[in-house]
Amino acid sequence: MTDSTQKTASYTVPGMSTEDGARVAEILQDRLNALNDLHLTLKHVHWNVVGPNFISVHEMLDPQVEAVRGFADDVAERIATLGGSPKGTPGTIVAQRSWDDYSIGRAPAIEHLGALDLVYSGVISDYREAIEKTGDVDPVTEDLLIGHSGQLELFHWFVRAHLENAGGQLSTAGASSEKEAAADAG
């Protein structure tokens, strides 16, 4: 039996070199890892949120989970279209990610939202870098990533609206870890 995960296609989309297709697919693999991690993290929060705002946060997260799962499917299919082989296993996420695992367990809603503020900030910042890297070589991928970014930014705003005071300051401003953001939010 051969390991097909190690093979790369000898083609990509018309008008793009196979090298450029492979480079874009590699950028997208990082986004696929982030999206798979994000939808699992959002579901984890959905299951572990407690306290007075439980139901509003619990119900706010399910549509985000479904949308992010859809984004992961979009990205995986774009990788395949480019001639790559998308990897969606948990081991791939863990081996290739540049971020730590989500660190909050059962906790009040506001603490999870504080931690999610940092999660979304990281995902969106990395999305913007991927948009910049793919724009000149593959406008189709750039467009896909821009569409996802708009929705991710909206979801981030939903989270941040719970953390903002009337003066426009976030309770998590300056936090550098999920646990610190959770503590600042709580």
UniProtKB/TrEMBL annotation:
Residues of the Ferritin/DPS domain: 26-165
Regions crossing the membrane: none
InterPro entries: DPS_DNA-bd, DPS_DNA-bd_CS, Ferritin-like, Ferritin-like_SF, Ferritin_DPS_dom
Entries under PANTHER family matching the protein: DNA PROTECTION DURING STARVATION PROTEIN, GENERAL STRESS PROTEIN 20U
Family the entry assigns: Belongs to the Dps family.
Name this polypeptide is given: DNA starvation/stationary phase protection protein
